[in-house]
Amino acid sequence: MQRRAFFKNALAVGGGLSLWGCSGLTALAAQAEPAGRDIPQAVLSWANGQPLQYGRVHLSLPPLVENGFLVRTSVRVESPMTEADHVQELRLFSEVNPSPFIANFYLGPQLPEARVETRIRLADTQAVWAVARTNKGEFWCSYQQVIVTLAACAG
Questions:
Q1: Which of 8, 41, 76, 117 is most buried, by the most CB atoms less than 10 A from its CB?
Q2: 77-99 confidence digits (pLDDT tens)
């Protein structure tokens, strides 16, 4: 009898969250600007002293992953992708992995949009950073917190 009551309550809570439109994990993961978060040293080194700006990079990862070995990741950068203004390079960084550098993508004005999708490996719960460098020398970035229950990269 207790099991039925548990499932009934779980379904009611789940339905309420879906009607509400977002769970606590989604709200935790969606951050446009760092609220007191320090930018990782690897990101600062790559930017080579240039200022980092927020707002044009949209990083999408699941807020909670059961297995850190393959985490689906999507990054989109708002850019006209013309010869005069386009994204040249896009990098992904980790705060906790043994190597902070995750991936590097070279883009150009021949692409219709600045968007990449890949799968990454995460060592533990952490923030993942996406940083785009434009042909004008601007650096745009975003980060997202990801909770990992089974860590990868353990060495």
A1: 76
A2: 999 999 999 999 999 999 999 99
Could you give the CA distance from residue 32 to residue 21 in angstroms, rounded to a whole number?
19
How far does CA 110 lie from the centroid of its chain?
25
Radius of gyration in angstroms for the set of CA atoms belonging to the chain, rounded to a whole number: 18
pTM over 0.85: no
Q: Three-state SS for 104?
A: strand
Listed in sequence order, the residues at least 6 apart from 7 whose beta carbon sits closer than 8 Å to its beta carbon are none
The Cα–Cα gap between 146 and 63 comes to 5
Would you call 16 helix, strand, or coil by DSSP?
helix
- CA dist 63 and 27 (Å) reads 9
